């Protein structure tokens, strides 16, 4: 029985199947990619910052696109998505892309620690320029992968412009042989998200009979051109970690007993806020309104000074930023003398879109305040950079600066001077010791994740994630009060938007001219095959006549 079936199967090969294979197989071979797995890729990408500040739009305003990928040197129209390394693009190129290209995809460095200081400064200035104005085209950032490197190299070498081609034939050949990429991001239309920033505060009560209060404050959010990539190690994980460590140190001093030196006269109020300079210190503004404008304003009834900590790990040299120069004999002047820090005096300009430093919110409410920072200017681009990451050198600077601040604050509270004896300082040295292990743990934890306002102010409940961790840490040393603030929907001071991340698909494609040439080649191939099959008997007769010397007899 199986012999008959085998004969039937053999009949297929005696029919037209070989001719079909002659037609189909070459077409499939030509059209199929060399490596089907490499024909498409899927990546996580992070959208550029989008927010409104006082109704003024900033950052990227769109999210989806489906465009052909091109390099910095080969793109030309709004039908192209420019793909480049972030260190390769200049500010002028970005301005041109912002107004003419369809989308922009920037790949971050493989390892930012190997970048030169000039390259880091260039990237930081580019970030600052990107966020100052609104951008209509979608802009995404991606972390480096080998696949991205391959795509970048393909785009740089595949599309050779006419002026770089020797002849017209070479230009056509380059266009046909090049490998292209179709880049697609399907993301929802940007939507406003509800933001509820949180302020945490706890108090170490001073000796009875004293009503003075010293405020130690820092914001714990971060800022960057891409919210999901802004870890903000120096600005301002360092300030938040310093507040936690100072709370631990002075909780021991105020507790007295073993290792303690006794409760100081002034009360110490530790404050952590969720919005920093990028959103004009909104949460500390709301918190001050709640504390100073309420019927019971006992918390800030007699503030000696407010010390704000912002970006204190980039070097071991602290600078005191003030709105008014400290008066001799005042509390802030006492701290300056003990810190031996240079003073940078900058008046508050209410006409500016944003305030320069954290302390200016206190100064506006006539509270003596200053900011300690290792940065010399509030315009330093490192305050809002994705390159602001953790390093062992920054940890070393942070531990040193916390120790300097703790010693200066303790010497002010307990009225110790340089002339104080070693026996006097010995009472405080044990409690003033900085726990480097704890500082390192919190510094690495905060610097390992995004703390952008879109992340830390939109949790449900508001005290989730990083905020909840900071609340638990501060609660170890004192009772903590959580204040949740709301943005006025009628006249919002700021508005945040989602999405902050998306999935990007990259498809390996050939240019349109390749499809045209391929079509012509297939038509030519089929035509040749058709005529060869039609005239094969005649050709065979002529061939037989030549070989045998006589015509073939049918």
TrEMBL record:
Entry membrane topology: Single-pass membrane protein
Key words, A-Z: Endoplasmic reticulum, Glycoprotein, Membrane, Signal, Transmembrane, Transmembrane helix
InterPro entries for the chain: Nicalin, Peptidase_M28
Location within or outside the cell: Endoplasmic reticulum membrane
Predominant place of localization: endoplasmic reticulum
Highest taxon listed in the record's lineage: Eukaryota
Annotated Peptidase M28 domain residues: 201-252
Residues annotated as transmembrane: 20-39, 512-533
PANTHER family per record: NICALIN
Family of this protein: Belongs to the nicastrin family.
Protein name (database record): BOS complex subunit NCLN
Species the sequence originates in: Chilo suppressalis (Asiatic rice borer moth)
